[in-house]
Amino acid sequence: MKHRIRIIYIRVASVSLMVYLSLYLLGCQQTQIDFTATAATSLPKFNPIHGAPTLESMRFEQTQSIQQQIMPNGSQLFRVNDPKSGLDHLTLVAYSARQPFKNVDVLMRAFEEKRRWLVASQAQSCAESLTFSPSLHSIAIGISCHQLPTEATELLMSFWRPHSFDDIDIANVRRQLKLAKHINAFSGAEINTVWARTILGEEHIYNQALNDSSLADSLTLDSLNNVREQILSQSSWAVLANQRLTNAKGKPPQALLSRAVALNSTTNITQDTHNHSSTQIMQNMPVVPLGNSSKTIYIIDAPGSVQTQIRVGYPMVRDLNDTQVNQALLPSDASGNAQDCQLLASWLGRSFSGRLYYDLREVRGLTYGIYGRCYDNPLSRSIKFYGSTKLEHTGAFIDGVLKHLALAAESPPSQAELTAVKTYNTSKLLLRQDNPMALELDTIRQLTSGYSPLYQQAFADKIEALTAEQLQSIAADVFSRPPYIVIRGDAEKINADLKQKLPDWQLIEVSANESL
């Protein structure tokens, strides 16, 4: 009898527990998201620290000079200071200022596979120091060694020679490309693809140069070699080497340049467009309006996501004379536009003391971080503010960004805030001057964008002379128009909040695999 009562008790308890869990879960499903209210803007405060010493304003003086030598074959040799590490450093740069390299993402995967094969098969420890710095307009391969041997230059050349990929595992390259595509879809990186199409236009040459899915899925040795030859056919060459290496017996940098230039004659690919100037290429590309007059928010639906990724920004005017390839000086109006872009990005979007970060994170707790960046490329320039937020903060987050853009265009910053902007940008210039890799990247930028070696000093001079009214005027020129907005989140959960908080904006659902 007691045993039967115990069984009945257990059964009743089990049924009660199941009913309780069902009601609990049902209640969770019916819980409504409590969306965050909008708020007025809050500006960062820069209160002086009591008892702190008075410091003079930072001043940038360009002291690092890179000697440039144009070789008889048209290639360029840059002599940099000897590294304090005692290592010799050599970088071979293939670059194309007039038009971007196509499928450079595919080539980089193959280069990584080639590097692994070299490290495994070469006795030289230098092979492990091989590095790649790719962009749409340049591919830099660097190597560092103690008393760099002549054979090390052959390692750099081996990536470009015919039959350079005969020994690598093409199937693994193909798998890595497919894996990267799946990771990007899972991680939400697809928003960057949609953003590039939005801010540049779908037909922009940059959007045609990357992410060729059909090539990645069916990559063969022949098609990979075609990519390499295509890039070779439009490449000019430069070498960066430290002083000790350029004076060494056998002069490895000069010999490397001669070998690299000779490679161009080995390709069977020729293109008439190689003779077109950057101006001609830009004139043939569709122009994206500088403002989003239709007030459209493009949304990538990601059901089940707990955060919303957000991109807000503008294309910026790029003067057709902006790309003066291999000229000594850059026109002041063109360089000024690039500097304006950097100043705006840092004013609103630098971390901690930037307006957006201070307000949307420090004051309101809507995000872990929001940042601003200027994208200054030879054939485009744009400014972007980006971050992620919880679903319930989506509308308030976007509203906060829009209010700050409007405020920056309408009123100048305080003197304390202006000083903070100046200190931040001057500090960046000082740090870059002491960073050998940054100096190398700046030198490559001169090759691809035509910027003067004195660009950094010109920017420092502009920062020092900048007034609050000038900064506001720069903002008014860019921010007085509605920005372009792309977001990725659970559309079903956030659409109503967006329509309520941003009634003047229309929502259009898009996909990375479809046209806008």
Describe the protein in words.
The chain has helices spanning about 1-30, 105-120, 150-155, 170-185, 190-200, 215, 220-235, 245, 250-265, 280-285, 330-350, 355-365, 395-410, 415-435, 435-450, 455-465, 470-480, 490-500; strands at about 65-70, 75-80, 90-95, 130-135, 140-145, 235-240, 295-300, 305-315, 365-375, 380-390, 485-490, 505-510. By secondary structure, it is of the alpha+beta class. It has a six-stranded mixed beta sheet, sandwiched between helices. The longest helix is centred in the first third of the chain and has 28 residues, at about 1-30. The chain starts with a helix and ends in a 6-residue tail after the last strand.
Write the layout of secondary structure elements.
Layout lengths: L1 H28 L37 E4 L5 E5 L7 E8 L8 H18 L9 E4 L3 E8 L4 H8 L12 H18 L2 H11 L12 H5 L3 H13 L2 E7 H4 L5 H12 L14 H6 L12 E6 L5 E9 L16 H18 L5 H9 L3 E11 L2 E11 L3 H17 L4 H19 L2 H14 L5 H11 L2 H12 L4 E6 L1 H11 L4 E5 L6
Parallel strand pairs: 2-6, 7-11, 7-12
Antiparallel strand pairs: 1-2, 3-5, 3-6, 4-5, 8-10, 8-11, 9-10
Helix pairs in contact: 2-4, 2-7, 3-9, 12-13, 13-17, 13-18, 14-16
Order of strands across the biggest sheet? 1-2-6-3-5-4
The radius of gyration is: 27 Å
Summarize the main sheet.
Answer: 6 strands, mixed
Ends apart, CA distance between termini: 74 Å
Q: In terms of per-residue confidence, which ranges show pLDDT below 50 for 5 or more consecutive residues?
A: 26-30, 320-334
Number of helices: 18
Judged by helices, strands and strand pairing, the structural class is alpha+beta
User: What string, H for helix and E for strand, traces the elements in order?
Assistant: HEEEHEEHHHHHEHHHEEHHEEHHHHHEHE
Number of strands: 12
Shape: globular
Report the average pLDDT across residues.
86
The level of helicity is 40-55%
Proportion of residues in β-strands: 15-25%
